[in-house]
Design brief:
Length: about 1200
């Protein structure tokens, strides 16, 4: 049963196959293929035919023997002629067609080596061949041109029979009897008559045969100059002696041909392809000979199909008797419409743009038809998945440049060379991008190496250089305005300096004692060269601005963009590569260059050209797979996104060790490895390849992240295998911050927690995370974020949009996973504790302590040192912490003494009670920085712990004038119990030389004691001792007086001045010398009475022996009230005092004590004019002063003068006459 069923099925299949073949055959027959031969319905309106008929009809009357149909190549000349022949097949016109197209290529093969004459002879030979081969031999029996005839078996039999009969008849002439015997007629009764009949019959046959043989022999020998004419090979062997024109040489044959044939219209085509005008001359001459020959006896017209540009200028009218122009049916301007119409039924997938482009090169209908035929064949034979645009483009190129098309099959030719140059063009573009990247890297390097990153610092360097050039300058003059070097650093002023071509400067001139103006020819460019001969100022300023504007990050982004462009360029199709190289001159041949430019630059022909010129029989690999495999084996790079099809089959052909090389990197291949566990070794090798940090490996990773299909698994495995990945990303690569954050997101999202932890051990990943503001939202998986935070313990410095991730934020806050900085504290207080942050900048610690944020308070107390460094001290306005908070910080054992000092310096708060501070060193700092309330109890508290003020803290406190002023308002408090401490403290104050004099004066006023001689104050400064004397802190006695007098010259008088009453009361116990008296009598501290008492108690010799004392005393006596003074001292004063007025005043006050003798000495000591008073009859003139009037009056009363008068200007004294 099964066997029968199989037989039935096979029979059915055979029937179906037959039907299919019939249908296919019918379809083929229905396909509209186009013939390339001329058509016979070209002249629809008979315009051209009528013109030809007119010419032919008037060939006699108008002598038209040479007619030309002129038009461009492919214009339809042959079709017009064929149509004309079809429509005029009558006995009147017999057409002989001659076409040289079939001989053109044959002649062209070696035409470059032939001379024009030889080429002409070959053309003539071809014409001659076509004329004579056009008719059978029997039509031209007398022609010397003999052709090889093909004899059929039937003819061969017939000819053989004829020859046998003829030979039999010849044999009969010589041996008739023998013939009869053979014919079995010898002996018959009627043999005589039969023999006679046979004899004469055979004789007739013999003569007929002989006639035929002789005539044939004559004809053969008549063609002695032609050695061989071979029809099958199409060649005529010419006698070597013939070296003249073929047509001329065989003119008789040609005339004979037209004589015996009926041809009267000769149509000659394709003669113009050789560019030989000489042949037309010969043909015209031949036509003339034929028509003038009486032998021919008829008019023969030559019709030529000739290109328009065959003859120059007006020459063609000389060759032809009548010219018919043919308007082309198709040219480059309308071929697009024709091509579109013919293609539409075949395919609707071809773009009109392509047709428009290709039609520019199609100007011949035969070419167009052949393109259509070939396109249909290729379309049916090749894959229907191919681009129809590309297929048509390839067919057009095949038809226009067939030779180059053939070379494509051998990976040769113009198209192939250009496609092969794709890598060269790509390398040019990549090289240009690399140059741009190199420039950007150089710029980054310059910015990273910047030593000066502040514009004012930069300007200071240039100003220092300027001073170095002009060392005596003190300022610069620009536009008649003086600028100090400090002012020059300002923006507007420094810009003015940049434009100076010479420098005007001020310098100090010692002779004039002021600044003078001078000019130096130094230009600012000279200053620039001195500072930096590589970059000028503006360039360096721009570098700093770029640094401040984070240009490095911007440059890195540009580099990343260029690197992406490089990757994209490698995968560009050929057309885009060429479009980027618009100036690339593909070919030297202009026409061919234009076509190739259009086909290649528009992508109609590209790297997959092989699919459009040949079959590919896919087996285990596709063509693309095979090409990739070849590249891998030959270690040639392929684009990462190179399309692979049968990946698993391809993997089997690649050994494991190849996967550690960059040539095997491919996205399709890698996707397959990631999704198929049986290729673990290959995958492992690939990851070893990727972590080698090469540019190619990093580029592949970048590209796969953007284009791969298994990114999650890729990142997971990459992080497991490459433990130093983040170290490379952050420190070794030139990635921008944006790109680093992309990688961070991928690692956090797809890598295992253990891998992330391992990566963090080998890099600064935790630091990067800590600085990432949006870390809590970088991935959507909050549980994984919690695990990462818990494992890595980052200290987040910023958190953006904390409200959106409140749960995570609370997790970070309560787990102390944040950095102690102002922003985080402010955020925590704002969200967790509902605290306003108004005082955070002015009293940060106080605000924290007053908040309800228990976790925050505890976290900061546990990390108080970091808080102080990162927050407290960095807040410029954080100066208003309350006293309680500051004391808490100062008493914190975890803070260093230096930090506590910084806190004290920063804060404005004044500690009320120093005893509340537990650290005596801190107390000293508080005192030194005057951050303690200025009361004696605070100072005594510190002194009580130190018993020494030499550490400088108390002194520093005293040296604050405000402190000293406030302290001076109160005495140092003491009770009996602390008297020793107070006495020691007071003594230390008095004996401290480092207290400023003004402050020393204030604080010593508060000392409640006066110290005896036992206090060793001789080491104190003059001013300090003076202050102690003034503040009466030294007991008044002779010992202190002498000690001061010995060690502090001049202060003994001050000492006496502060104790005048005690001094005068105990005057005998004090030693007063001449200088002392001078100071005392001049002192303003001694009253007039005290001075009078002093004068009365002092030894007069001390006075009279020193002129200065006489002068001082005379001034005092002259201007004081009268007091008891000895006459001796008075006489000394009025005679020896240096000032006359004082002497006159003293005399006038104490004149009663002076007798005549002492008065005379007095007047005599006054000198002229007073001494003339003693001269009789003299009338000296004295100054008009009251004291002189008083003196004159006294002298008159004493009888020393007669009288005195005054004229208002002088006082006239009238001396005695006897």
């Amino acid at each position: 049963m099964k066997k029968q069923l199989l037989i039935l099925l096979n029979y059915t299949i055979c029937i179906l196959k037959k039907w299919s073949n019939k249908l296919n055959t019918a379809q083929i027959h229905n396909d509209d293929y186009q013939s390339l031969t001329p058509i016979d319905n070209a002249d629809e309106d008979q315009t051209y035919s009528n013109a030809i008929i007119w010419a032919l009809e008037n060939r006699n009357t108008r002598n038209i023997k040479n007619i030309a149909l002129t038009g461009s190549y492919g214009s339809g000349k042959s079709s017009i002629l064929k149509t004309f022949q079809k429509n005029n097949q009558s006995c009147e016109y017999n057409f002989l067609n001659i076409s040289l197209a079939t001989f053109k290529d044959e002649i062209e093969e070696d035409s470059c080596s032939k001379k024009d004459d030889e080429l002409l002879r070959l053309i003539e030979l071809s014409i001659l061949q076509q004329i004579f081969y056009h008719v059978e031999n029997n039509k031209i029996p007398d022609s010397r041109f003999k052709k090889i005839n093909s004899i059929s078996n039937q003819k061969l039999f017939k000819y053989t029979l004829y020859i046998i009969v003829w030979l039999f008849s010849i044999f009969n002439l010589f041996f008739p009897k023998l013939i009869y015997k053979l014919l079995l007629i010898d002996g018959f009764s009627d043999n005589a008559s039969i023999e006679t009949i046979i004899h004469y019959s055979l004789l007739s046959i013999a003569f007929i045969g002989l006639y035929i043989f002789i005539s044939k022999t004559i004809r053969v020998f008549n063609s002695s100059k032609i050695n061989k004419l071979n029809i099958q090979s199409g060649e005529i062997e010419i006698d070597k002696e013939i070296d003249k024109s073929i047509l001329n040489n065989h003119l008789d044959e040609i005339l004979y041909f037209f004589e015996v044939t009926h041809y009267n219209v000769v149509i000659i085509e394709d003669l113009d392809r050789f560019g030989q005008t000489e042949i037309f001359t010969k043909l015209r001459e031949l036509n003339s000979l034929i028509n003038n020959s009486l032998q021919v006896g008829k008019e023969v017209v030559f019709i030529y199909a000739v290109k328009d540009d065959m003859f120059k200028d007006k020459d063609r009218t000389k060759f032809f008797d009548f010219i018919i122009p043919i308007i082309p049916v198709i040219n480059s301007s309308n071929s697009n419409d024709i091509l579109l119409n013919k293609l539409t039924p075949i395919s609707t997938e071809i773009s009109t743009d392509l047709i428009d482009d290709l039609s520019l090169f199609i100007d011949d209908m035969r070419l167009l038809n052949n393109i259509l035929n070939e396109y249909k064949i290729y379309q049916s034979k090749l894959s229907n998945k191919l681009s129809q645009d590309k297929l048509l483009a390839m067919i057009v190129y095949k038809n226009i440049h067939p030779g180059d098309f053939v070379r494509l099959h051998n990976s040769e030719g113009l198209i192939y060379d250009i496609i092969k140059k794709k890598q060269e063009y790509l390398q040019i573009q990549i090289s240009n991008i690399n140059k741009k990247i190199e420039t950007l890297n150089d710029e980054i390097e310059v910015l990273e190496k910047l030593g000066i990153k502040n514009i004012k610092e930069l300007r200071a360097i240039y100003i220092e250089a300027l001073i170095e050039i002009i060392p005596k300058s003190v300022s610069i003059s620009i536009d008649n305005t003086e600028y100090t070097f400090k002012k020059l650093k300002e923006d507007s002023n420094f810009k003015k300096l940049l434009n100076q071509t010479s420098l005007r400067y001020y310098y100090y001139h010692p002779s004039y004692g002021d600044n003078r103006l001078d000019t130096n020819n130094t230009k600012f460019s000279d200053v620039e060269n001195l500072v930096d001969n590589e970059y000028n100022y503006l360039e360096r300023e721009q570098q700093i601005l770029d640094w401040e504007n984070e240009k490095i990050e911007m440059l890195k982004k540009e580099i990343e963009s260029f690197n992406k462009e490089k990757i994209a360029i490698k995968s560009l199709p050929l057309k885009e590569v060429l479009q980027r190289n618009e100036n690339a001159n593909l070919l030297d041949n202009e026409k061919q260059n234009r076509l190739i430019n259009i086909l290649l630059r528009n992508g109609y022909i590209d790297e997959d050209y092989y699919d459009y010129i040949s079959h590919f029989y896919e087996g285990s690999l596709t063509r693309e797979d095979k090409d990739f495999l070849i590249n891998v084996k030959s270690q040639a790079s392929s684009d990462f996104n190179y399309k692979l099809n049968k990946v698993e089959n391809l993997l089997k052909k690649i050994k494991d060790d190849y996967f550690e090389k960059e040539f095997v990197l491919n996205y399709n291949l890698f996707d397959f490895l990631l999704t198929n566990s049986k290729y673990k070794s290959k995958l492992k090798s690939t990851f070893n390849n990727l972590k080698n940090k090469s540019d190619n490996s990093i580029a592949f990773i970048d590209g796969y992240i953007e284009e791969g299909n298994n990114i999650a698994k890729f990142i997971k495995l990459l992080c497991e295998d490459w433990k130093e990945i983040w170290n490379y990303i952050e420190l070794e690569s030139d990635f921008s911050l944006e790109k680093k954050e992309v990688y961070l997101k991928l690692i956090l999202e797809y890598a295992d927690i253990s891998s992330i932890k391992t990566i963090s051990y080998n890099s600064k990943l935790i630091d990067f995370i800590s600085n990432k503001k949006d870390f809590l939202t970088v991935i959507t998986n909050q549980d994984k974020i919690r695990k990462i935070i818990k494992e890595l313990n980052p200290k987040l410095k910023f958190i953006d949009n904390a409200e959106q991730t409140l749960d995570l934020f609370i997790f970070v806050y309560e787990g102390n996973f944040y950095d102690i900085n102002y922003n985080m504290i402010e955020l925590i207080l704002k969200i967790n504790c509902n605290s306003e942050s108004i005082n955070l900048r002015e009293a940060n610690y106080t605000a924290i302590q007053n908040s309800e944020c228990i976790f925050l308070i505890k976290y900061i107390d546990e990390n108080i040192q970091k808080y102080i460094s990162n927050v407290f001290l960095k807040l410029d306005n954080n100066t208003r912490e309350n006293e309680t908070s500051i004391l808490k910080l100062l008493n914190n054992e975890n803070l260093s003494l230096s930090d506590k000092e910084k806190i004290i310096i920063k804060e404005e708060v004044i500690i009320s009670k120093l005893e509340d501070n537990e650290d005596n060193e801190v107390s000293g700092i508080l005192l030194r920085l005057s951050k303690v309330k200025p009361i004696w109890s605070n100072i005594l508290d510190y002194y009580d712990h130190n018993e020494n003020i030499a550490d400088g803290n108390i002194v520093s406190f005293f040296n604050n004038l405000k402190n000293s002023q406030l302290l001076s308002k109160n005495k140092i408090p003491y009770v009996i119990e602390n008297r020793p401490l107070i006495e020691k403290f007071s003594k230390d104050i008095i004996l401290n030389e480092t207290i400023a004099d003004e402050n020393y004066n204030l604080v010593t006023k508060s000392i409640p004691f006066i110290f005896p001689k036992s206090l060793n104050y001789t080491e104190l400064s003059y001013n300090k001792v003076e202050i102690l004397i003034n503040n009466r802190k030294l007991i008044f006695n002779n010992e202190n007086y002498n000690l001061i007098k010995e060690n502090f010259e001049g202060l003994c008088i001050l000492f006496l001045e502060n104790y005048t009453a005690d001094f005068l009361a105990d005057f005998e116990n004090f030693t007063v010398n001449s200088n002392d008296f001078t100071s005392l009598i001049s002192s303003v501290k001694f009253s007039m009475d005290e001075k009078i008492e002093l004068i009365t108690k002092i030894d007069e010799t001390i006075i009279v022996n020193e002129q200065k004392n006489i002068n001082k005393l005379s001034e005092f006596v002259a201007n004081s009230k009268n007091f008891e003074i000895t006459i001796t001292l008075l006489e000394c004063l009025v005679v020896k005092s240096a000032i006359k007025e004082n002497r006159i005043k003293i005399y006038n006050k104490y004149y009663n004590k002076f007798n005549l003798d002492s008065t005379s000495k007095f007047l005599q000591s006054l000198g002229y004019p007073y001494s003339d008073i003693l001269v009789l009859k003299k009338r000296p003139s004295l100054d008009h002063k009251q004291l002189n009037f008083n003196l004159a009056d006294i002298l008159k009363n004493k009888g020393f003068i007669k009288n005195f008068t005054s004229d208002g200007k002088t006082l006239k004294v009238i001396a005695l006459h006897k």
